[in-house]
């Protein structure tokens, strides 16, 4: 029973960190965040400008993004490099998708909901 509580706590903490990270990224008063400062990764800005509808996320990209997080929920020892490699993508591609997801409020909430749901299901399946 204690193991199940610990796993649920870890899964809830992961979901909470996703929520907090997105919240902090959106706060203009957060130290280091200035809306008028150029992107620290100019290659992403140039690529986004070149793409038509750059804030749109393809459904297959959303699925890969979710699968990366789910893999890390299942295996806490898995690194981001390993998890993204399983989905045949680079960390840079993953972070680009993540940025697009975070800018789309509806999509961000849908992803969070799905990750929280899978975390709860995983915790319940581990119950004795």
- End-to-end separation in angstroms reads 7 Å
Count of DSSP E strands? 0
Give the class from helix and strand content and strand pairing.
Answer: mainly alpha
Beta-strand residue fraction: under 5%
Instruction: Compute the number of helices.
Output: 6
Order of helices and strands: HHHHHH
Calculate the mean pLDDT score and round it.
74
Shape: flat
Unreliable segments of 5+ consecutive residues? 22-52
The helical percent reads: over 70%
Report the biggest beta sheet as strand number plus sense, adding barrel if it closes.
Answer: none
Count of domains: 1
Radius of gyration: 16 Å
Report on this structure.
It is built from 6 helices and no strands. It is mainly alpha-helical and 128 residues long. Residues 22-52 have low confidence and may be disordered.
Helix-strand layout with pairing:
Elements: H1 2-26, H2 42-50, H3 59-74, H4 80-86, H5 91-103, H6 105-125
What is the compact description of this entry?
The chain has helices spanning 2-26, 42-50, 59-74, 80-86, 91-103, 105-125. With 128 residues, the protein is mainly alpha-helical.
